[in-house]
């Protein structure tokens, strides 16, 4: 099993910054990617940013491009999300995600979530 623990959420004013961290532990092998999703009540969970293990590439939701940066420390099994120029619409619960693919089947693991609130 894989355990993911997020930290770094909180309350910030619009225009401010926060840095989320996620520590992975347990059966850490064959990680295809690590990333961040977010969810607001009544809406589906959406991808914010992802970092692909094999290529080192990163992908972002259009709404956060140029403001958020995802990074990984593979030696420490950590993934980070630096969030700058925050907007009220960034308010959500942010979830760390890790997935691996084995024999063509994807398995996702999730953290417990951390609340990010951006005041106007």
Structure description:
By secondary structure, the protein is mainly beta. Helices cover 0% and strands 61% of the residues. It has no helices and 11 strands. The protein has strands spanning 2-7, 10-13, 18-26, 31-39, 46-52, 58-60, 68-73, 78-83, 92-102, 105-110, 114-119. The strands form 2 sheets. Strands 2, 4, 5, 6, 9, 10 and 11 form a 7-stranded mixed beta sheet that branches. It has a 4-stranded antiparallel beta sheet with strand order 1-3-8-7, with no helix packed on it. The mean pLDDT is 95.
Secondary structure topology:
Blueprint: E1 2-7, E2 10-13, E3 18-26, E4 31-39, E5 46-52, E6 58-60, E7 68-73, E8 78-83, E9 92-102, E10 105-110, E11 114-119
Parallel strand pairs: 2-11
Antiparallel strand pairs: 1-3, 3-8, 4-5, 4-9, 5-6, 7-8, 9-10, 9-11
Task: Based on the model shown, name its key terms.
120 residues; seven-stranded mixed beta sheet; four-stranded antiparallel beta sheet; single chain; mainly beta; globular
The gross shape turns out to be globular
Q: N-to-C SSE series? A: EEEEEEEEEEE
Uncertain regions: pLDDT < 50 for 5+ in a row?
none
Helix content: under 10%
Query: Describe the biggest sheet?
Result: 7 strands, mixed
């Amino acid at each position: 099993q894989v355990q993911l623990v997020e930290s770094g959420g909180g309350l910030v004013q619009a225009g401010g910054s926060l840095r989320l961290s996620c520590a992975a532990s347990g059966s850490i092998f064959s990680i295809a990617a690590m990333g961040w999703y977010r969810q607001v009540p009544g809406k589906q969970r959406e991808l914010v940013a992802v970092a692909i293990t094999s290529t080192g590439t990163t992908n972002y939701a259009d709404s956060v491009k140029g403001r958020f940066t995802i990074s990984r420390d593979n030696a420490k099994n950590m993934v980070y999300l630096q969030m700058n120029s925050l907007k009220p619409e960034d308010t959500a619960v942010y979830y760390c995600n890790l997935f691996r693919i084995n024999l063509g089947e994807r398995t996702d693991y999730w953290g417990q979530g951390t609340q990010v609130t951006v005041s106007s």
